[in-house]
Amino acid sequence: MKEKTQVVDIDRSRYDFRYEEDESEYLESGIAPEIIKAISDEKNDPEWMREFRLKSLEIYDHTPMVDWGPDISGLNVDSIVAYIRQKNRMKTDWEDVPEDIKETFEKLGIPQAERESLAGVGAQYDSELVYHNVRQEVAQSGVVYTDLESAMHDPKYADIIKSHFMKLVPPTDHKFAALHGAVWSGGSFVYVPKNVHLDIPLQSYFRLNAKGAGQFEHTLIILEENSYLHFIEGCSAPKYYEASLHAGCVELYVGKGAKLRYSTIENWSKNMYNLNTKRALVEENGTIEWVSGSFGSHVSYLYPMSILNGRGASAEFTGITFAGEGQNLDTGAKMVHNAPETSSYMNTKSISKSGGVSTFRSAVVVKENAKGSKSSVNCESLMLDSISRSDTVPVMDIRTKQCDVGHEAKIGRISDETVFYLMSRGLSEEQARAMIVRGFADNVSKELPLEYAVEMNNLIGLEMQGGIG
Amino acid sequence: MINMSEKRINTLPVPTFRWLGVNDYKYDIKEFDTDIKEISVPENESKSEVVYIDSESATDIRISAENGSKIKLVCVFDVQGQARSKVTAELDENASLELVELYLGGDVVSEIVTELKGRKATFEADIGFKLESGDKLDINLIADHFGRKTVSSINAGGVLGGSAEKIFKGTIDFKNGSDGAKGAEKEEVLLLSDEAVNKTVPLILCAEENVEGNHGASVGRIDEKQFFYMQSRGIDEDKIYDLAAQAKLARVISRIDDKETLERINESLGRGEDSE
Q1: How far apart are CA A453 and CA A202, in angstroms?
Q2: How many whole angstroms separate alpha carbon A312 and alpha carbon A249?
Q3: pTM here?
Q4: What is the pLDDT along chain A (469 residues), one digit of tens a residue?
Q5: Could you tell me which residues of chain B have a Cβ less than 8 Å from any Cβ in chain A?
Q6: Which of B23, B209, B215 to mutate to test the interface with A (most CBs of A within 10 A)?
Q7: Which of A70, A358, A366, A412 is the most exposed place for a label (fewest CB within 10 A)?
Q8: CB distance A402–B194 less than 8 Å?
Q9: Are strands B212-220 and A403-412 parallel, antiparallel or unpaired?
Q10: How far apart are CA A427 and CA B65, in angstroms?
Q11: Where are the beta strands (DSSP E) in chain B?
Q12: Do A401 and B202 touch (CB under 8 A)?
């Protein structure tokens, strides 16, 4: 009897370690005005932020739950701990970080990556940033890379934060945006001045160690005219039986002629509800490039939006999703063409196996004023068995005659013809099929930062056993 | 009798972002007495039907095609006002449905649900539209593949002028057990106006490993090279657009054999002389 090709689940053992938390540092679970006020007190929020949080809570209370997408009935927000206090303040010297936290990030390879290939690193552990550092020469060029809360209290940046915070993703956007506005904590602020090109990336790493908790970090990046930045975001958590929640928010402002590459490798544990919101506003001739790998989580809703707001602005989204047993990953992107001669390109791959559900969901909107715009979407899905599921749900909304919009999607299994061809060139059937599956993910994985691409290849281990049915 | 009421119909099988307004059709629509038409095609027989809708109405066409039978259904919508249409079909083993739908105007809500139940059942849909200011069209086409080696092919295309609004929702749904099924969907839309609104929603849902599904869509203007070529042959811009519009519809019209129907279509398109 022939055996099927086995594509093993992503090995998360590397991420699946944990440290005991001191429960006294938890705020009460649930979402209530007292908890919001306690977070505000804890953070010494300016008055506008305290009001913003309470207003967001009101919006949260009145906003209905999403009525489309994967089932999130297993998530009880009232049992989620929204904020966990850190005993120690954020450090800028790695040696000063508490031992257990330091060990966590060392296991994840963050300090090593910082030494070898990064211009700066931020590390968030549960609700708070525990470490933030940027190379001296980078800081001297005027680049600001700090935690959002310090920036909010710094007279140099306070006004910038106030005028940009949750303006792209307002709390009215959806229920979990409102929740984020009420309980957000941690996250990074990046400012790249005019004409500054940062050749090596900055990276933030988010680790949720606590049980039954939520992580609500906020990332705000502003690129001035003709600047360049590559920002990498990584996230992981150990597995618990209780549901965890990640409802972060990313707001990116890309100035005229500037270019931002935003890479994310999401590898949350399989008890995580990942309800993250990401949005970029791109001005004239600016470029946003999203690279997104979704491997973890129990449920994901993740669709970075690019608003092309200036003539000639462009956006590119490259994504790969791997849904295994117990996972329902609903991912994709949204492109809004709101100026002439803008362009967008989406290229995604998804793999479903062992009962996993993968959905590609997208929106391309070309408004009346986006004359001369172009958009192209390409998505491919690979089903590795018949107990899994793969759906493609794209929408195009076009409101000008002067545009070119194209869309292509494919779904299917490993093609027998391709296997036959490769075998005719001397490969065994196992080698041929392994090559096809690796090749399927290749044009996305090559867009990942090198260390993540290597990691992804290791993560998607292939076990070829005999012939394939 | 006509009543007004708010309804939600033409529901997308898998809903998506609410702000796009494509999950269902929910406006005040007139409630008509529905004209129900049942078409049964016995085993190994063939049938052909034409339905020409030129007045406000609601039609409900229910097709049942037994093993090895063939049915061709042509529906033309040329309405001043509102019309609702529903076509449901059940196809047994080796049965085939050829559906040709042409939309020439009106405020039309159209739902087409085909269940490919039997092994090797096939469904071929050719849909064309030419809409002007005031016209609205909401199509929700669903091809449910239940049987093994079933095949669906959906081709839609047309032109939108003035302030016409069109939503085409096309779903190929590979159910678990539809081993060896194939589904393809294509839509090409030419926009002739900056006030027109085109929404294209091509879904592929898949719960079976051994299937092949693909969809492609292209929306926008005439290809620049084609446009340049025609200009170089001395054809002015208006005529180029007119020719392109005719070409988009010609594909669908060529599938219609009935002479009387063709005459009515040509008359409606204002080119009666072409029907000679």
Answers
A1: 17
A2: 26
A3: 0.90
A4: 444 545 555 555 556 665 555 544 666 677 889 999 999 998 899 999 999 999 999 999 999 999 899 999 999 888 887 777 666 556 667 677 777 776 777 766 666 666 666 767 777 777 677 777 777 888 889 999 998 999 999 999 999 999 999 999 999 999 999 999 999 998 899 999 999 999 888 888 777 777 777 889 999 999 999 999 999 887 666 666 677 899 999 999 999 999 999 998 888 888 899 999 999 999 999 999 999 988 888 999 999 999 999 999 999 999 989 898 899 999 999 999 999 999 999 999 998 888 999 999 999 999 999 999 999 999 999 888 889 999 999 999 999 999 999 999 999 887 788 889 999 999 988 778 777 777 887 777 777 766 666 666 655 553 333 323 2
A5: 14-18, 20, 22-23, 174, 176, 179, 189, 191-221
A6: B209
A7: A70
A8: yes
A9: antiparallel
A10: 47
A11: 3-6, 28-31, 34-41, 46-53, 57-65, 70-91, 96-116, 122-131, 136-145, 151-160, 165-174, 182-191, 197-206, 212-220
A12: no
Question: Is the dihedral angle over the CA atoms A227, A263, A238, A29 positive or is it negative?
Answer: positive
CB distance B103 to B131 below 8 Å: yes
Alpha-carbon span B95 to B71, nearest angstrom: 8
Residue pair A276/A305 in contact (Cβ under 8 Å)? The answer is no
Q: Can you point out the beta strands (E) in A128-217? A: 128-134, 144-147, 188-192, 202-207, 214-215
Give the residue from B16, B141, B194, B244 showing the smallest Cα distance to A398.
B194
Between strands A389-398 and A357-366, the pairing is: parallel
Distance of CA B94 to the CA centre of its chain: 23
Tally of CA atoms within 13 A in the half-sphere of B136 that contains its CB: 11
Q: CB-based contacts of A39: which residues, under 8 Å, 6+ apart? A: A27, A45, A53, A82, A83, A183, A185
B56 CB neighbour count, 10 Å cutoff: 16
- Half-sphere exposure in the Cβ direction for B67 (13 Å, CA): 2
Please state, in angstroms and rounded to a whole number, the distance separating the CA atoms of residues B123 and B144: 10
Cβ–Cβ under 8 Å, residues A258 and A281: no
Chain A CB contacts of B206 under 8 Å are 381, 383, 389-391, 411
The nearest alpha carbon in chain A to B22 belongs to A395
Count CB atoms within 10 A of the CB of residue A218.
23
| ipTM rounded to 2 decimals | 0.92
Distance from CA of A24 to the nearest CA of B (A): 40
Contacts of A383 in chain B (CB under 8 A): 206, 208-209, 211
Q: Tell me if chain B has a CB within 8 Å of the CB of A383.
A: yes
* Residues pairing with A189 in the sheet: A146, A220
